[in-house]
């Protein structure tokens, strides 16, 4: 019995004009066992759940399915059941179709879990395309951002993967499979997926800080069209994960989270990078959509490819390596390569006892006693720790106002010094990132008009001192903080150390 494919899907009526040819004999069939006995389906392999359901419902309307028992090597049935008798394999397929779940190729059961989650295919072309797209979308952050502490960066990268993987599996695996099985065209499925992800996004950020929700909107939403294009090229979720992970992780890695706090001034170049990445993602999605449809039209006119498949694959590998090499070159030449590691503050348990200074009458003698006591305490208690740090090749700076040692960029030594009897506490000293480029909002908007003098300044008559020309000339202002930027133009020429 010959197999046939029919574009029309619907119920089968024997002898009815226009009914799909399912290989069923008509009433005049001379099959053994009677007109309806021994008939079998040449069932065309369905291509979607919707078409499977229609086959199943169409067959079930006009007869009860019964799996005949063949008496011989053919499809004949010596004991026909009531209704339409079909071949055993076709009966099982129709029963699965009625449930809306079709058989996986080469398997008698339903759809495999890997197929539903998009884990069944891994094609080289979409995977290389995802690598190129990830490099292009993360390129702006190399020019305006900088990495922080290496241990924190590794933790943030793993957290980004832990977030991207479940979302890709859920939405671009399971939910995409369900929507694509429901809708014939791609854009209703993507629109439905976007709406469902929007609801999920709102529910997930009901209790999140506003800066976190805003950052996720700027990063994740522009990726949806690109993820849809990658998924439409039939390679499972692997390219989607390759694109989504770096696109979500790199902005977090290259931007200090303190810049995203509401009371801090945002970096204008970071805001421009968010806008540039969103525009680039939408442009690339439109280009890939046009390329995919144009290639489909050309394929219909010329079924045979112009170039051999291996040549195209090698060309794709070379192009991807070229883009990644460009990414690394720009990072090294125009960015700030490396990490700005957090340091440590090792605070010693013994601090200088300055209480006898209250008994000294003269100011000069009192100051000399305080200075000598602070320095003597530091020089007496710090040498063992300094020698150990020098042996490890670690940069450090000793302090005596507070008896402590500042360690440069070796947060991994925290456990080495914490808990020692001579150490009171070990604190992590946050880094200060050096962005390759900086643009102040003040420079963009010009000079800000002077606001009214604050009431606390008026209480000490600062306005009267300003009228007399006293602005603090010749006065040294001292501050104790590890966060001063001594390279600031307003401080560098007057910095006393």
UniProtKB/TrEMBL annotation:
What are the protein's GO molecular function terms? serine-type endopeptidase activity
Which residue ranges does the record annotate as region Disordered? 1-45
Name the UniProt key words of this record, in alphabetical order: Membrane, Transmembrane, Transmembrane helix
SUPFAM superfamilies from the xrefs? Subtilisin-like
Q: Which GO terms describe its biological process?
A: proteolysis
Residue ranges annotated as transmembrane are 127-148, 160-179, 186-206, 212-230, 237-255, 271-290, 311-330
Record has Membrane as a keyword? yes
Q: Which InterPro entries match?
A: Peptidase_S8/S53_dom_sf (IPR036852)
Q: What is this protein called?
A: Uncharacterized protein
